[in-house]
Amino acid sequence: MKKACDEMAHKDTFRGYGPYEGYEFLRNAIVAHDYQARGVNIAADEIFVSDGAKSDVAHFQELFSADARVALQDPVYPVYLDTNVMAGRSGAFANGQFAHVIYLPCTAENNFAPALPKEHADIVYLCSPNNPTGSVLTRAQLQTWVDWALEHKAIILFDSAYEAFITQPDLPHSIYEIAGAEKCAVEFRSFSKTAGFTGTRCAYCVVPKALKLTDGAGNTYSANDLWMRHQSTKFNGVSYPVQRGAEAFFSAEGQAQTRKAIDGYLANAKVILRALDQAGLMAYGGQNAPYIWLKTPQGVTSWDFFDKMLNGLQIVGTPGSGFGLSGEGYFRLTAFNSPEQTQKAAARIAAGLK
Amino acid sequence: MKKACDEMAHKDTFRGYGPYEGYEFLRNAIVAHDYQARGVNIAADEIFVSDGAKSDVAHFQELFSADARVALQDPVYPVYLDTNVMAGRSGAFANGQFAHVIYLPCTAENNFAPALPKEHADIVYLCSPNNPTGSVLTRAQLQTWVDWALEHKAIILFDSAYEAFITQPDLPHSIYEIAGAEKCAVEFRSFSKTAGFTGTRCAYCVVPKALKLTDGAGNTYSANDLWMRHQSTKFNGVSYPVQRGAEAFFSAEGQAQTRKAIDGYLANAKVILRALDQAGLMAYGGQNAPYIWLKTPQGVTSWDFFDKMLNGLQIVGTPGSGFGLSGEGYFRLTAFNSPEQTQKAAARIAAGLK
Predict the structure, then answer these.
(1) Low-confidence ranges of chain B (pLDDT < 50)
(2) pTM beyond cutoff 0.90
(3) Alpha-carbon distance B331 to B301, whole Å?
(4) Residue A214 CB: number of other CB atoms within 10 A?
(5) Which end of chain A is more exposed for a tag (fewer CB within 10 A), N or C?
(6) pLDDT < 70 regions, chain A
(7) Closest CB from A14, A51, A233 relative to B86
């Protein structure tokens, strides 16, 4: 990044407006490391570099009509729902839910795997590894979703921002590891959680050229063309030094450093899971995700548990009900801290919650 | 920026997610230099830092309903129109124009100053200094627009990305120099053209707390609150090193360097204007803007003139018709080149177009 800053300071190496979809050096690195290395056939012109997966996820719904039906996991990363509400696609709000949104409950009862919608849906948001539950969809589960989407002409918006945390070798990192996904799915990826880019800002999404969107009259359009049009009209690309920073993540040194950081977070997750077990609490996730999703004790709401953790143990977490109705009775902890702080918190949990 | 990159590499100075609206150090610098220094009363919590004025201008229309009437200058920066078309707000396209859009012709006949709309408009895009015509709205003209907007409950989206090019001391740099503007106007600013940030990406918009938006039932909402909600849901802020780069623009050294660059571009504009005069062509702008807007010779269309310039003189410019119907018969040249290249082009124009 510092080298890129120097380039920007000299006439011969200065770069003005870059490609809307990101520089080829970065898109090529993404394709090679995140797809070809896993045997997945994605091309550089199917990659769109952006300032954040949040921006991509928030804006992609603009390609759909106002009456498109949205299905999403419950609990869920709030941006999926909120942006559809803001687009006027959600219907009336009553009893904590929106009338036109299809909620797919993910609880301990179904092992946090959403069932296929009973009604027709045009758009389905799937997040795996999941925020907040820390669960991961298996290859077979994802194949079921892809087959369903192809049959029902639905589009899957697949958020795999946490794929780098997957430790089990048989779990899919990309939806394009599943046959047919290139015809029904868009994938969102981020450098935030994999490479500490939360404040540096870089991400990308994959819009396959085989993906077609169909309008009400049955006409089909290339989703790749439409997204390029969206990005070129509403965005001027990501800062050049930032794209060089993202490219460096794919270098041998970058891969080694970030692998070490992620392994550290996964070790933290183990420490937290052990403490919760010692405290007699049921907990999920943390093995292939940075999130630990714990069941609050019988009769204790998410917010009551929040107060208990904060005031009793001086530990901050996120009440599950903030992620949706099915999050009530759960609580999210994250592994994103130092080993020392994590050990300290774990000791308090193990001792204090007994 | 390099210092900020170093900070990101150390645990004690690392910065993760920043404020959605931008760091206070940058918003304070913007307020001090761009507003308070001109006697304009804008506060730091009315500033929203973004990755580009294009992004802000493209997304701000989302706060309005699908049936809001849009008025815009013709010719115009295409993003204003295109984003409203994409939002379904434009009506049917026929004879080169959209049925529900109110076009405000800006030609040599009205000295490139748009007349007030004859129909009701909810949103008016004004760009001053103007891209592509290079014209600037005077204080009196802008007061007329502000008074009209207040009377008709219209919102002015004021794009002043080129304000640093204003040389005449009596011309307004900000719409907030006009009485009442804080109740009817949003202002868009960019570091791209003032500080060479085209590839570095940083900009900001001003949404005054006094600005209210009214819904169909007559309820009013704070535009500042709505925009904060938009940004916090769909955006995660600008890269920290980039914000430090923008802050450096406001340092004494940054101001001196960028002033020198802008003065250089304005000198280029003079050279081009002189050459066009020698070639017997009418030309406008270039005095308070980086753009020169020339009238093509009688009977020569914008595209014919483009071919003539390209094939005859090896000079590339932009056909005026690309900016709207009223741009036909005009051609845009820019001052954004080196003095040497500009001199070379000017010599060809003066000699070749006679």
Answers:
(1) none
(2) yes
(3) 9
(4) 12
(5) C
(6) 354
(7) A233
